Amino acid sequence: MPRMARPTAPSYHTMRLAWCRLALRAFVRRWGVYFVVAALVVGAGSGSPLAAMAGLAGWTAVPLAHAAAHGAWLLPATAAQALLGLGLLAGARSLLWPVQWREAERALPLSRQELRRSDAVVVAWALLPWIALQACGLLALLAAQPAWLQPVLPRALVAWVLAQGLAAAAGVLMLQGWRRVRTGRERQPSRAGGARRSRAQGAGWFWLLLWLPLWRGSARRSGRWLLAGSAALLLPAAALKAWPDEAGWWLAALAVAALVLVSRLSVLSRAEYAPLFEGAVMLPLGARTLEGGRQALCLLPLLPAAAATGVALGGVPLRPAVLASYALATCGSCVLEARLLPGSESDKAARWLFSLVLCVALASEVLP
User: What are 141-192's pLDDT values in tens digits?
Assistant: First the structure.
């Protein structure tokens, strides 16, 4: 009787790549809905929604192409394009290398070369949607055939390819850096227990459970999004101050950015604070109190953005009733994103579509 061959166990790289493909597919399916909704909102007043979507994708390539027409700006623009791709990789850390894999990698006989090759393949897969979006933008730009693009087209294409290569190489180095970072338990020896206990007695529960995890605990990704998002929401206010005649567009951009940020913070913070809240059931704090604090953190970036926008709108002729309706619609939509539990993608996309259409329509009517 012939002996049956024993099935070989899949390698670490095969299992990791399969997991990353599934996670990336779910990520693209979720955020692809948001992109389509935003494109439909932008193209709502045009005769061709497809052309509007192509124009929206084209903005991912227009800055680099314009920099190619001005030689002095090409190198900084290439670096900025690469940094943008690296920022997307940093935001997708849970898709590329979850922290829980650290112990599994240490337990396996994996060489540095194997890990480096695996990182390179995973980073390439993660950058694929971003590269495809930029490629669509380049094709849309080529289809428009602007006169200024023809002389600098080869230079722009080389710079674009170089930017993707730099983003991929920096992404691999970033993955290796994450792998070398030690956990808080490894950094803190047992001798620090007494000092940590004495500090904990003097600190408030809200500090320990809500604020401290943002930079020293399990909610660091939420902390990074909180800081970066607060800074990003100030950009529409700065643009509004520089170009007040386009106030409607900048207010619409502010509403879209606020919805994206609050939605992402809600998902991240809900996942990162869940273990802390479960472990705090014996504390004299109600579940509603902790959940309310988490929701307040998600809405916190709106405060400096609202203050900066109010300053930028000073002296601009406005319709006060429409501006108040816009502010109420934007804040109400963000509060819903922070409070509502995760549901089906279709329900969330419908809520997003309604919120975006309402906020953009009101923003376009703010000027008299």
Answer: 888 878 888 888 888 899 999 999 999 999 999 888 887 765 444 444 444 4
Q: Are 160 and 79 within 8 A, CB to CB?
A: no
User: From the CB of residue 325, how many other CB atoms can be counted at a distance below 10 Å?
Assistant: 17
Pick the closest to residue 66 from 161, 157, 149, 169 (CA basis). 149
Residue type, 206: F
Q: Looking at residue 216, what is its pLDDT?
A: 74
Inter-residue contact 333 to 263 (CB < 8 Å): no
**What's the rounded mean pLDDT across residues 118-130?**
88
Tokens 């290398």 locate to 97
Which one-letter DSSP state was computed for residue 210? I
Cβ neighbors of 72 (< 8 A, separation 6 or more) are none
pLDDT in tens, 286-311: 667 778 888 888 899 999 999 998 88
State the alpha helices, DSSP H only, in the chain.
Answer: 12-42, 49-58, 62-69, 71-91, 93-96, 101-107, 112-144, 153-180, 184-187, 193-202, 205-206, 213-216, 220-232, 234-242, 247-279, 287-299, 302-312, 320-339, 345-363
Query: HSE (CB half, 13 Å, CA atoms) of 299?
Result: 16
pLDDT tens profile 318-329: 888 888 999 999
Q: Are 5 and 109 in contact (CB under 8 A)?
A: no
Six token digits for residue 161: 């390819």
> Cα separation of 136 and 144, whole Å?
12
CB 236 within 8 A of CB 250: yes
For residue 337, is pLDDT > 50?
A: yes
The residues, any chain, with a CB within 8 Å of residue 109's CB and separated by 6 or more, are: none
